[in-house]
Specification:
alpha/beta; seven-stranded mixed sheet; three-stranded antiparallel sheet; 11 helices; 40% helix; 13% strand
Length: 381
């Protein structure tokens, strides 16, 4: 049967690494998972309790397309608590994970053959979702001196209709401060470039609080999710904040593309927002793991890294060790029993010389993984 050209997207390499790790475990090996960007903890206990109660007492049918009103109101309150931003809950749209939000945003903002700038290294699915929608992703090679984040000068001479920015970023963990984010937003506004801010790792910061685009402008799309800070990856609930004039547009798209986000997931997400003590406990683990990673990776020989301001990743330059990060990652899995992600997932041009390490798992796993990596590098010479 025929298929479309726009359906020919690249694989998500980290998922292939996860499958290779699964096969190794099935064969009896013990694998330390530093490849996948998800917490090792379950959804907060309060979220699971609330869902169990709802499953007993409620039908959990379709919600309205924009999401449960109580959840939208609670998300709006979060912006006051975290950023001192007074947000109208009517601008909040609950989505089927951040992935659903990307589909809605890209569909609402761009026409076929429009061009959208994406910082590289960056989350690979931006590129693939855009391609599937027949929108052209334009890679912007972010530089070390700019903390692997795009800057206004990078946009010169580029014909763009949109710009996608993430802070804290995946895979680097680097963040944009308020002046840097403001400069990008102002540059885009001056050139009529739609600005989309991926804030999925907000809440997971270490030295300073991440800045939301909503502190600077209402004329942006802001995307977030319950996957990372709220430890709910598999529940597939995210959200998006859009300008007031765009709400009805997004609502019509959501009605037709998704009907609604998971009602069960929304019930759990609402309760998760009241579980701050447990969530801060998770953050304390990430902080401890980050300290271990910065020391342990350097000790093992992975000492060329981006400054991980937030999220739970370390992005390392390994170009002095290999020119094939995919083969290098496979070697690490085979010989060390540690699963890591090759940089080709995040940067098609320079990723052959980079590796991403995740430290979202337990501290015991991180210690063991670092010890294995050190032995592997010593044996490799």
């Amino acid at each position: 049967m025929r298929n479309s050209r726009r359906g020919q997207v690249d694989p998500f390499i980290v998922m292939d690494v996860m499958e290779a790790a699964r096969r190794a475990e099935e064969a009896g090996r013990h694998v330390i998972h530093m490849e996948v960007g998800q917490p090792g903890t379950p959804a907060p206990q309060g979220a699971r309790t609330a869902l169990a109660r709802a499953m007993k007492d409620e039908p959990l049918g379709y919600s309205v397309a924009l999401g449960l009103p109580a959840l939208r109101q609670r998300i709006a309150r979060l912006y006051g608590d975290w950023y001192d931003v007074d947000l109208d809950p009517g601008r909040v749209i609950v989505t089927a994970g951040s992935s659903g939000a990307f589909v809605l945003a890209f569909t609402a903002l761009f026409d076929a053959r429009d061009r959208v700038g994406i910082g590289e290294p960056g989350y690979p699915s931006y590129r693939q979702i855009l391609r599937a929608l027949n929108v052209e992703p334009v890679g912007i090679a972010a530089r070390d001196e700019n903390r692997l984040q795009p800057v206004p000068g990078d946009l010169e001479n580029l014909d763009l209709q949109g710009l996608m920015v993430a802070s804290p970023a995946n895979p680097s963990g680097t963040m944009l401060d308020k002046p840097a984010l403001s400069s990008l937003i102002e540059t885009c506004a001056a050139r009529d470039i739609a600005f989309i801010s991926d804030e999925i790792y907000h809440g997971i910061e270490y030295e300073s609080k991440a800045v939301t685009a909503l502190e600077i402008t209402d004329d942006a799309y802001v995307i977030n999710s319950f996957s990372k800070y709220f430890s709910m990856t598999g529940w597939r609930v995210g959200w998006m904040v859009v300008p007031e004039a765009h709400v009805r547009l997004i609502e019509r798209l959501a009605q037709n593309l998704f009907i609604c986000a998971s009602h069960a997931g929304q019930v759990a997400a609402l309760a998760a927002m009241e579980c701050d003590e447990e969530l801060q406990g998770n953050l304390a683990v990430y902080k401890a793991n980050r300290t271990l990673m910065l020391e342990g990776l350097s000790d093992a020989g992975f000492d060329r890294i981006a400054p991980p301001d937030g999220a739970f990743y370390v992005y390392a330059d390994v170009s002095h060790l290999t020119d094939d990060s995919r083969a290098f990652a496979a070697e690490i899995l085979e010989k060390a029993g540690v699963a890591v992600t090759p940089g080709l997932d995040f940067d098609q041009h320079r990723g052959h010389g980079t590796i991403r390490f995740s430290y979202a798992r337990s501290t015991g796993d991180i210690r063991e993984g670092l010890a294995r990596l050190k032995r592997f590098m010593q044996a490799r010479g």
